[in-house]
Amino acid sequence: MYIREMFENKKVVMSAEVFPPKKNGMLEGVIRALKEIKSLDPDYVSITYGASGSGGQTTADVASVVIDAFDMTAVAHMTAVNMTKELLEERLAMLTRKGVKSILALRGDIVEGSKFYDFRHASELAAYISERYPDFELLGACYPEGHPEAKSLDADLDMIKLKTECGVSHLVSQLFFDNETFYDFMEKAEKKGIKATVSAGIMPITSVQQVERIVSMCGVQIPTAFAKICANYQGADLYNAGIDYAIGQIRDLIDHGVKGIHVYTMNKGDVARRIFDAFEGVRK
């Protein structure tokens, strides 16, 4: 089932994200996480791509495990950075062989050694795939606080709209900790005429180091309520408080009519279980 069909037929679409191992053939950790995630019956599982466009093979391998071993819907990430048309054709052929029908088209993170060849933006990647391989369903990313490199949120919304015009039918948001930011983003997206369905990206924070890394990488704003949790809890207490905060975020989002929730699991099956179990009764 395509993601767009899920939004037509389900009250709430809840999905999970996992990342593949850095080295080929070392799938034990992600398989353990997928085994637990499978028992939670997610609507789909997305699999990330390596930094600077590396790791396409392992992304495809994990997607194959999601489909063949666990009978779940897989979304494979694909990045524009370091991507040539020839390599993209190879990747698309590989995903087709493995039964993947949905692709999350991204620009990709810029790190040392990153280069752009035939694609510079996610919209260009989406346009190429949409024109030549229309059977693939295309997803894209959105940033409730604006992309860190965008001149403004309004300019970023223009880029998001362009992605939808290039074939993207569903958006998955960057993580955020203040729901009001997401509601404001959705209102502005609607005014821009962006009609794609949207899943709100939620990452349960379970350690101070995780918070520091997220802020440095994504520039996400930390609201006062969440900052107090980080300041007042540590160890197991922070672990539990972080999950509870994420559950509270999701509950508020659903109460406000948000139909898509995407959980960044960080390959932690126990975290995914606590999140999904809290909403078992509202997803049908």
Kindly identify the CATH topology. Answer: TIM Barrel
Number of helices: 11
**CATH architecture descriptor text:** Alpha-Beta Barrel
Oligomeric description of these chains: single chain
The structure class reads alpha/beta
Biggest sheet details: 8 strands, parallel, barrel
Shape category = globular
Terminal residue distance: 16 Å
Task: Report on this structure.
- The chain has one domain (3-282): Alpha-Beta Barrel (TIM Barrel), CATH 3.20.20.220.
- The protein has an eight-stranded parallel β-barrel, surrounded by seven helices.
- Helix 5 (122-132) runs parallel beside helix 6 (153-165).
- Helix 6 (153-165) links the parallel strand 5 (137-142) and strand 6 (168-173).
- With 284 residues, the chain is an alpha/beta fold.
- It has helices at residues 3-9, 28-38, 56-69, 85-97, 122-132, 153-165, 179-191, 208-218, 224-232, 235-255, 269-277; strands at 13-18, 44-47, 74-79, 102-106, 137-142, 168-173, 197-202, 260-264.
Short description:
By secondary structure, this protein is an alpha/beta fold.
Structural features:
single chain; 284 residues; alpha/beta; TIM Barrel; 8-stranded parallel beta barrel; 11 helices; 8 strands; globular
